[in-house]
Amino acid sequence: QAQLVESGGGSMRAGDSLRLSCAASGRTFNTYAMGWFRQAPGKEREFVAAINWTGRQTFYADSVKGRFTISRDNAKNTVYLQMNSLKPEDSAVYYCARKRGPFGSLTPSANEYDYWGQGTQVTVSS
Predict the structure, then answer these.
(1) CB 4: neighbour CB atoms within 10 A?
(2) Kind and range of the H or E run holding 24
(3) Rg, the chain, Cα only
(4) 126: closest CA among 87, 90, 93, 68?
(5) Left if phi > 0, otherwise alpha if psi is -120 to 50, otherwise beta: which for 105?
(6) pLDDT mean values, one per 10 residues, the chain (126 residues)
(7) What is the spatial distance between Cα 5 and Cα 126, in angstroms, rounded to a whole number?
(8) CB–CB of 64/49 below 8 Å?
């Protein structure tokens, strides 16, 4: 069992920066890839970014590439999402998730993630 708790959401203005954190329980955090997803009202949940268990490989959705950075601190069992140059279309509930199975490859498919946090709201006004 793993528990994921997101934090850091808030109300921002376009162009601002924000860092989300996701604290994970469990002694095997450093063997799993992690991902961030988001869901806006009336829209499907969409992939944002993923990072492998070492932190050396990352993968981003085109919509956030160059603006968002995913990272992890395995000593703290925490994964981060640094969001810069925020846009109103970034407004959503942001979820972190653990990839199914240790040492897995990166994937944008939500079906490949088996543990999810409760989400944190990010609202960006113009």
Answers:
(1) 22
(2) strand 18-24
(3) 13
(4) 87
(5) beta
(6) 93 98 90 96 97 96 98 96 98 97 91 96 97
(7) 28
(8) yes
